[in-house]
Amino acid sequence: MSMPGPLQLESEILRLKKEKNAVILAHFYQESEIQDLADFVGDSLQLSVAAKNTDADVICFCGVHFMAETAKILNPEKTVIVPDLSAGCSLADGCPADDFEAFLKNYPDHTVVSYINCSAEVKALSDIICTSSNAAKIIKALGPDEKIVFAPDRHLGRYVSKESGRDDIVLWQGSCIVHETFSEKKLIELMVRHPEAKVIAHPECEESILRHAHCIASTTGLLNYVVDSDASSFIVATEAGILHKMSQAAPDKLLIPAPPEDESCACNLCPFMRLNTMEKLYTCLRDLSPQVDVPEAIRARALLPIERMLEMSR
Ligand code: 13P
Ligand code: SF4
């Protein structure tokens, strides 16, 4: 079957979306064209809520695998499709369920709080899921006497430990390959060149970046900060896809991407998120494939900590 030309691609995607009664959900790290035709663009928590609330028959998830898997866990009766099934995540990949299960045997009396960037199997081993927008709130709500394991992101874990005044949280040592690429030296050089700029950072960044930040928040939190702040320039330490919505929402503001250590590598773009393209979005809606499936026994166990998160985030 032939592929529509670039000009027809967008109208064909919208036609197929209507024909299949599909909703297109997209993360801020997707390429601009995908964000512009999605029904909803948001951070991980907002996308989970949108997936839970949709009455479409098909959820077309433009993000990475764990996000689409979460949508499937919440909607077992719906068809969940993704443009590229191999769009993984270094955090999810760095926490295999077998290893995590063995690790947890060392902490039998701990509450397991897992960042949503993990597999369905790891969610099934967890007590509560969190995202970057509610992690500190959830840890604080657990109370000071609760023993906690936090996985898989050690940087987010360290950040929430600090925010909640807890130095005893056990951390799984995972990290995001994108957020670890930012260079403190280059950030300081930029801050010197733009002394008026506010530094904004995602909590998956290393402490050497976060210590310079005026705002640390989820992607939506960073977007809202840019829109609401009186400042006119911002150094943005997260995946550069977010600059698209930021520049649409605050067209008069100067947005400067924080530089990676190696500036020739485009490593501030997530290689997994970027596997999704308009062409693959078209074919996945046309063929309703590839689909995301989760075995029922895992799904039922993984649902509980996700629902707990959604209740605690209200
Ligand atoms: P947000 O929930 O802040 O959008 O983060 C998702 C993510 O993968 C960050 O790398
Ligand atoms: Fe995973 Fe990092 Fe990509 Fe987010 S930016 S999806 S945490 S690899």
Report on this model:
There is one protein chain. The chain has 314 residues and is α/β, with parallel strands linked by helices. It folds into three domains: 6-88 and 273-293, 3-Layer(aba) Sandwich (Rossmann fold), CATH 3.40.50; 91-176 and 300-312, 3-Layer(aba) Sandwich (Rossmann fold); 184-257, Rossmann fold, CATH 3.40.50. The chain contains 15 helices and twelve strands. It has helices at 6-19, 32-37, 44-53, 65-74, 90-93, 97-104, 120-124, 135-142, 154-163, 184-193, 207-210, 219-228, 242-249, 278-287, 296-312, and strands at 22-27, 40-42, 58-62, 79-81, 111-115, 128-130, 148-151, 170-171, 198-201, 215-216, 233-237, 254-257. A four-stranded parallel beta sheet has the order 2-1-3-4, with helices on both faces. β3 (58-62), α4 (65-74) and β4 (79-81) form a beta-alpha-beta unit. The longest helix is centred in the last third of the chain and has 17 residues, at 296-312. The radius of gyration is 19 Å and the shape is globular. Bound molecules: 1,3-dihydroxyacetonephosphate (13P) and iron/sulfur cluster. The site of iron/sulfur cluster has 13 residues, from α5.
| Amino-to-carboxy terminus distance | 46 Å
> What percent of residues are in strands?
5-15%
Poorly predicted runs: none
CATH fold-level assignment of the largest domain: Rossmann fold
